[in-house]
Design brief:
The complex is a heterodimer. By secondary structure, chain A is mainly alpha-helical. Chain A is 72% helix and 1% strand. In chain A, a hairpin with a 2-residue loop joins strand 1 and strand 2. Chain B starts with 13 loop residues before the first strand and ends with a helix. Chain B is an alpha/beta fold. In chain B, helix 4 packs across helix 5 and helix 12 packs parallel to helix 14. The chains are: A mainly alpha, B alpha/beta. The interface between A and B is medium-sized, with 28 and 27 residues.
């Protein structure tokens, strides 16, 4: 409880913020290219899709859930967009599919009382199959508009970074200033007590899952713009990476504690680590092992803080 | 001071009419009619399990009556949820609070009806609304404090504020003072009096007599799910009220005390439980039942748990001997399993959470006691005959030994827990709250079981928050206060006053002549 008091319900603590800062500082001292604008802009474009998907995962974590299907939703969206012959309807279709996926997850969890891991594992498998059926191997052509947007700059800043920043601002506004945001925190702390206080806890849960999938669809569109094509397996790491980012950012999967700042520092930590190891020339296979160790170290510095009296 | 309560009072604001409710085979409430009037504080009292809480849960919309109904200003209501009751102007402060710890006080107060524009919440409006209500009840903390940072008393004030916020006209307080300290109790009482001035209807569930006489004008006494009587408070005195509540000779419930003291069973000297404990000495004899008394949270539980090896004491010199008088090495630092091997069994107060495997059968739950000495991968054979003998011996009532423990009544669950330890062959029992959630009939059986255990050479140290139980059952009562044992009273000489004086002041009650 004392931990809750120090950081409020955002869950952000000194270690969570210090970790990416220390890594960035270390890299800027030990490599000569880290601070190059080329490297940073490239890094930002690389991280934008993951950052957007992590925001969705954040909403789910706040209502005590977990969404394993974000990755396959991202993949499916890239496929749908790229296999529609450059038509804007592809984007619309992808968005509708995402709402269906999120709705299915939310209803299964909230009304079906299915554990989130099981429910989203099922949709993950289903959606992955759908993506492979739509586009059996990487290919197709993403709509021209999205591709040019993804590779453009706005006042010298990569447009993707602007899109990601917009998503962050929107999520922050949702959580901190709206009725839904307050109720998401209430449901995360204790669904039954939230219900006693007049919150339709099940509806709030479903809405959180739908918003998560919509954000995954945005992440997928952005990603399709960047690679210029669809790829049925491109999102396979998104679920675990977004969960890792949240854990690094002090978000509690037991619900009710976390915020966009945590999501941001988590994503930055992952991005800096990966970028740094590339710059330092660490073998690609070793990178995964090193990441594991670093994550364990970073997280063990943070005290777990759960909601409770 | 108290308004006149008589048969010609105006129509009740709220009326529970002939309500009954049973849970499975247990009848929790049968044909109770109770009325609440504006500007009245109505005490509902009775022993544990008398049906008070069930009645209040019906009024609060948590439980629906199997028969009868609730009327609000003469209209029959069907509450399907607590919200229904709240919309009808009934606000309940439950024993377990419903605040959300990660929301601020003002957010908690606004939740469910947040002020604001469109999808947005206005933090300023929430603060303003909260400030108005909180000021009324004299809440001193900042309304931006997270609810998780509040003390129990402060949380309760916020719960009350929630009712005021909803402009409720009926307030139900379910044992509100159970977790409060003295100044918080005073504050609560003054809030209740303010509510009464405002012509609210208040139900006050409690079995603390002094409080009832201080704040209530009407008293209803319940017993075994039935309403015994409803009277104006000024027509009652404490003794009458106690007799109405108990409705029988108290002594009847309890078996005869031990006539003689046996050999020493456990001697602890300089036991330091945790850093903030003073060193205490304690001795337990064969054939004896010792009770630890004291106000809630003074350290009784920690003391028993330290002796039982649940949480290791900082230091302790303990000597233990078995039934034959042989010395047994005893070190609680080694943990519960080691303690049980040395013959000391622990019965936790939270039977369901810490004691029993609710999804396993009665026979599994008991025979686990006999398996402690097996190797981890050893074959677990169940001595059916022995389990059956112990279960019948203790009078565990089941459909069969393969019935799941979770489906048994509280009393039978407690017997299963005792049976497990007896099967493990312990000679000393450390028990927390031996009869919490156990109905009166089964309580008498458990008391006589405990006596039989000590008569056969056992010894028992127990804690209880039920003072009459300690007075009726124990041979000696040790009073714990501020993490120290402050006094000892012989069972047959102990009265509520002697024990409570020790528990409250840490001193023995002064003899009368000196007090003058």
């Amino acid at each position: 409880m004392t931990a809750l008091l120090k950081s409020g319900r955002s869950g952000v603590n000194v270690y969570a913020i210090a970790t990416p800062a220390v890594i960035a500082l270390g890299l800027s001292l030990s490599t000569s290219h880290f601070l190059d604008s080329g490297n940073l802009s490239n890094l930002a474009q690389q991280l934008a899709p993951l950052a957007i998907a992590t925001l969705g995962q954040l909403l789910i974590a706040l209502v005590r859930g977990i969404d394993l299907s974000v990755g396959s939703t991202v993949s499916l969206v890239t496929c749908v967009i790229s296999a529609s012959g450059g038509s804007a309807y592809g984007v619309l279709l992808a968005l509708c599919l995402a709402i269906l996926i999120g709705g299915a997850n939310g209803i299964a969890v909230a009304f079906g009382n299915i554990h989130p891991i099981i429910a989203t594992l099922a949709t993950m498998t289903f959606v992955q199959g759908l993506a492979l059926y739509w586009l059996p191997s990487a290919g197709g052509q993403a709509p021209e508009l999205i591709v040019s947007l993804a590779n453009s700059h706005l006042l010298g800043i990569p447009t993707l970074l602007v899109v990601a920043a917009f998503c962050f601002a929107a999520t922050a506004a949702l959580l901190n200033t709206t009725r839904l945001g307050l109720r998401i925190y209430a449901v995360g702390a204790n669904p039954l007590n939230a219900f006693f206080n007049g919150v339709a806890d099940k509806k709030v849960t479903v809405v959180a899952y739908v918003l998560c999938s919509v954000l995954a669809a945005v992440a997928g569109s952005v990603l399709a713009g960047r690679i210029g094509a669809g790829d049925p397996l491109v999102g396979s790491q998104f679920a675990l990476n977004s969960i890792t980012a949240l854990a690094l950012g002090g978000v509690q999967f037991s619900g009710g504690i976390g915020g966009v700042t945590g999501a941001l520092v988590g994503v930055l930590t992952i991005g800096f680590m990966r970028n740094g190891m590339n710059l330092l020339g660490i073998d690609a296979f070793l990178q995964s092992a090193v990441t594991g160790v670093l994550l364990l170290a970073a997280i063990s510095f943070q005290r777990r803080n759960t909601v409770g009296f | 001071m108290s308004p006149i309560v008589s048969s010609n009072t105006p129509a009740p604001v709220i009326l529970a009419k002939s309500v009954s409710r049973s849970f499975g085979p247990v009848i929790a409430l049968s044909d109770v009619t109770i009325a609440g009037h504006a500007g009245s504080v109505h005490a509902i009292t009775g022993e544990n399990g008398a049906g008070k809480s069930t009645l209040m849960k019906i009024l609060a919309g948590v439980v629906s009556p199997s028969q009868g109904h609730v009327e609000r200003d003469g209209t029959v209501m069907r509450f399907r949820s607590p919200q229904d009751a709240r919309r009808a102007g009934i606000s309940t402060v439950f024993q377990e609070f419903t605040l959300l710890p990660n929301l601020t006080v003002s957010e908690n107060l606004a939740l469910g009806r947040e002020p604001g524009w469109g999808p947005f919440v206005s933090a300023a409006a929430m603060r303003g609304d909260a400030a108005k209500v909180l000021q009324k009840i004299g809440f001193e903390r900042n309304a931006d404090t997270l609810a998780g940072a509040l003390s129990v008393g402060e949380q309760q004030m916020v719960e009350i504020a929630k009712g005021l916020m909803a402009d409720a006209s009926v307030f139900i307080f379910d044992e509100p003072t159970a977790a409060l300290n003295k100044s918080e109790v005073q504050k609560l009482e003054s809030i209740i009096l303010t509510l009464r001035e405002a012509r609210k209807t208040i139900f006050y569930i409690s079995h603390r007599l002094d409080e009832i006489f201080r704040v209530c004008d009407t008293v209803s006494v319940m017993k075994d799910g039935k309403l015994v009587t409803t009277r104006a408070a000024d027509t009652l005195d404490e003794q009458t009220l106690v007799n109405l509540m108990v409705g029988r000779e108290v002594g009847f419930l309890y078996p005869q005390r031990a006539t003689s003291q046996g050999n020493m069973r456990l001697t602890c000297s300089e036991l330091v439980v945790t850093d903030d404990w003073k060193p205490v000495d304690l001795s337990l004899h064969q054939g004896e039942i010792i009770g630890l008394a004291g106000l809630e949270g003074q350290g009784q539980r920690e003391l028993v748990r330290a002796l039982a090896g649940v949480s290791a004491p900082i230091s302790a010199k303990i000597f233990k001997s078995d039934v034959t008088g042989r010395d047994i090495p005893y070190r609680p630092q080694l943990g519960v399993v080691a303690c049980q091997k040395a013959g000391v069994g622990f019965v936790p107060g939270d039977r369901k959470g810490e004691g029993l495997y609710l999804d396993l059968s009665v026979s599994d739950n008991i025979s686990i006691g006999t398996l402690k000495s097996r190797m981890l991968f050893g074959r677990a054979t169940v001595d059916k005959v022995r389990v059956r003998r112990i279960a019948t011996d203790l009078g565990v009532k089941t459909h069969g030994l393969d019935q799941k423990v979770g489906t048994l009544s509280g009393g039978n669950q407690q017997k299963v827990l005792l049976a497990r330890l007896l099967a493990a062959g312990v000679d000393t029992l450390l028990i927390e709250e031996p009869t919490r959630g156990v109905d009166v009939g089964a309580r008498a059986e458990i008391y006589s079981l405990l006596r039989r255990f000590t008569a056969d050479g056992g010894a028992i140290l127990l804690t209880s928050s039920d003072l009459p139980e300690l007075l009726g059952l124990c041979d000696r009562i040790l009073v714990v206060r501020g993490r120290d044992i402050v006094g000892e009273v012989k069972g047959e000489e102990a009265t509520e006053e002697t024990v409570m004086t020790l528990a409250l002041t840490g001193r023995h009650a002064r003899p009368l002549e000196k007090a003058i």
